[in-house]
């Protein structure tokens, strides 16, 4: 696994600077309150995946926090592409975040208009899967009760709940954790959206305040629907359905479509990536730049 280590050049407040010289005030509200939003955009061989969709979600998050985007979409594209070209390796993730900026008085209420803090960097990622079940990384997961805040649809930098859930999985020797609400319905994973396959029908939880509207999730749904090969549903999914599913997938910007082969120590299906996953990942790989 390639470590998530940043390149030596970062984007800070619109300027490219060396990482060692990048400085952010300790009074920045992103540091003090998690008052900001972020995105992660995969970029392979200089081509970004889902750029327009990521920018649209970023704008939605900024509007929810009553923040103004300091850069135009065109300037973001130029800056991120420049970061990717200066990174080590052909395959990178582009992390960007915007916080409300620093203010001399620490107060919970939003301060008067001030300059936001903009930060972005590139980090290496593994090459995307072509759908080969023999080489893809499979995920072993556990289950748990969703303890996060009730605005998970905002891609906030305040990720302590997700971090604690991921640590819960790691303490049990798992790669991820599937989360269920008070009705025992699937929400998402600590860092991914979730799909299940039962009797050739592909389902994923419908979006609400408990789930992040994942870009990869949306792209995959559009691709699957446009292909017309399988039935697709967005609906509530119970824990029992997840545990009885033929296949379970995780989706995220850097994982794309990843197969789950064990839940709480029990194999999913035959314990190997299934045929529906293989078809889905091959479809995604063939069209990742078209959506």
Radius of gyration: 19 Å
The number of helices is: 7
Q: What are the secondary-structure elements, in order, as H or E?
A: EEHEEHHEEEHEEEEHEHEEEH
Let me know the largest β-sheet.
Answer: 9 strands, mixed
Average pLDDT level: 95
CATH architecture of the largest domain: Alpha-Beta Barrel
Overall geometry comes to globular
Runs in which pLDDT lies below 50 for 5 or more consecutive residues are: none
- CATH topology term of the largest domain: D-amino Acid Aminotransferase, Chain A, domain 2
Distance between the termini: 27 Å
- Work out the number of β strands: 15
The structure class reads alpha+beta
Strand content bin: 25-35%
CATH class designation of the largest domain:
Alpha Beta
Question: What is the total number of structural domains?
Answer: 2
User: What percent of residues adopt helix (DSSP H or I)?
Assistant: 25-40%
Describe, in plain words, how this protein is organized in 3D.
β11, α5 (215-227) and β12 (231-234) form a beta-alpha-beta unit. α5 (215-227) crosses α7 (275-287). The strands form 2 sheets. Strands 7, 8, 9, 10, 11, 12, 13, 14 and 15 form a 9-stranded mixed β-sheet that branches. Strands 2-1-6-5-3-4 form a 6-stranded antiparallel β-sheet. The chain has helices spanning 29-33, 51-64, 73-85, 160-171, 215-227, 239-244, 275-287, and strands spanning 9-12, 15-18, 36-44, 47-48, 91-99, 117-124, 139-145, 176-180, 186-189, 193-198, 201-204, 231-234, 247-252, 256-263, 266-267. It is built from 7 helices and 15 strands. With 291 residues, it is α+β, with helices and mostly antiparallel strands. The chain folds into 2 domains: 9-124, 2-Layer Sandwich (D-amino Acid Aminotransferase, Chain A, domain 1); 139-287, D-amino Acid Aminotransferase, subunit A, domain 2 (D-amino Acid Aminotransferase, Chain A, domain 2, Alpha-Beta Barrel). 26% of the residues lie in helices and 28% in strands. The chain starts with 8 loop residues before the first strand and ends with a helix.
């Amino acid at each position: 696994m390639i470590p998530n280590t940043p390149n030596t050049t970062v984007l800070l407040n619109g300027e490219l600077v060396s990482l060692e010289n990048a400085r952010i005030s300790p009074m920045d509200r992103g540091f003090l309150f998690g008052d900001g939003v972020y995105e992660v955009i995969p970029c392979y061989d200089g081509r970004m995946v889902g750029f327009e969709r990521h920018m649209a979600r970023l704008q939605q998050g900024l509007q929810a926090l009553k923040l103004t985007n300091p850069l135009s979409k065109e300037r973001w594209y130029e800056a991120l592409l420049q970061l990717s070209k200066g990174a080590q390796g052909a395959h990178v993730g582009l992390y960007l975040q915007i916080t409300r900026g620093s203010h001399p008085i620490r107060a919970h209420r939003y301060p008067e208009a001030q300059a936001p803090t903009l930060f972005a960097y590139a980090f290496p990622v593994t090459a995307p899967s072509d759908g080969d079940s023999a080489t893809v990384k499979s995920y072993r997961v556990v289950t748990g009760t969703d303890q996060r805040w009730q605005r998970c649809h905002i891609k906030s930098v305040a990720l302590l709940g997700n971090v604690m859930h991921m640590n819960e999985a790691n303490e049990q020797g798992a790669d991820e954790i599937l989360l269920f609400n008070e009705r025992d319905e699937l929400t998402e994973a600590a860092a991914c959206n979730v799909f299940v396959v039962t009797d050739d029908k592909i389902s994923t939880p419908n979006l609400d305040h408990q789930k992040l509207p994942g870009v990869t999730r949306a792209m995959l749904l559009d691709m699957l629907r446009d292909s017309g090969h399988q039935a697709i549903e967005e609906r509530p999914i119970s824990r029992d359905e997840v545990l009885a599913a033929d296949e379970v997938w995780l989706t995220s910007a850097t994982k794309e479509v990843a197969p789950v082969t064990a839940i709480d120590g029990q194999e999913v299906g035959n314990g190997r990536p299934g045929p529906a996953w293989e078809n889905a990942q091959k479809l995604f790989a063939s069209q990742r730049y078209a959506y």
